[in-house]
Amino acid sequence: MRAQGNKSQAELEMLVESLKRVIEKLKTENEALKKANSKSASTKDRATSEKSLRQKINNLEQLVQSYEMKEVNLDERERTIKKLIEANKQLRDDLARETDRYTLLEDRYKQVVVRLNELAKANAKNEELVFGMTTGGNMNRYSEFLSDPKKY
After folding, report:
1. Is residue 131 packed enough to be buried (19+ CB in 10 Å), middle (13-18) or exposed (0-12)?
2. CA–CA dist 19, 137 (Å, integer)
3. Does any domain span residue 146?
4. CA-to-CA distance for 66 and 88, rounded, in angstroms?
5. Domain extent for 103
6. Contact, 121 vs 128, CB < 8 A?
7. DSSP SS3 for 1
8. Angle at 90 between CA 84 and CA 94, to 5 degrees
9. What is the distance, to the nearest Å, from the Cα of residue 54 to the centroid of all Cα atoms in its chain?
10. pTM
11. pLDDT band, very low/low/confident/very high, at 1 (cuts 50, 70, 90)
């Protein structure tokens, strides 16, 4: 029986050894499958992350485009504001020139009115002198001689 026991013990040892090799082989195969699975999972993750990254890129491109449009609008506004400021300055300068011109003309008008009054008085005095010299009479007495028909 011992021979049978030794034989079976040797067989059992061989069986254990072959099982150990099978276990090692299965462990190696399991590790390889885990790596392959993680690669495929990471590929899925990559695909998902790639989609989300593409969406983020599109969103950022739209944001950049909107900022560029705002910048264009701001540049246009700045140019318009500069034009309006320049036009306002020009109008102020024109107003100042016209105000100075108006003041000058008003002063000339006053001088002309004063001179007209002076000349009118001198003319009246000269008329009276000429009338007196030619007729020998006082003009004040005859000033309304022809203007009021009922008086005479």
Report:
1. middle
2. 167
3. no
4. 32
5. 7-133
6. no
7. coil
8. 140
9. 32
10. 0.42
11. very low
Tell me the C-alpha distance between 90 and 81, whole Å: 14
The token pair at 119 is 């000349």
Rounded CA gap, 147 and 135, in Å? 19
Q: Would you say 127 and 139 are in contact if contact means Cβ atoms under 8 Å apart?
A: yes
Number of domains in the chain: 1
Q: How many CB atoms lie within 10 A of CB 9?
A: 11
**Residue 144 within any structural domain of the chain:** no
Q: Give the SS3 label for residue 101.
A: helix
Q: What is the DSSP letter of 136?
A: S
Structure token pair of residue 112 = 């002309």
Structure-token match 């885990």, residue found: 34
Segment 22-75, tens digit of pLDDT: 999 999 988 888 887 777 767 777 778 888 889 989 998 998 999 889 888 988
Single out the residue of 66, 87, 7 nearest to residue 74, CA to CA: 66
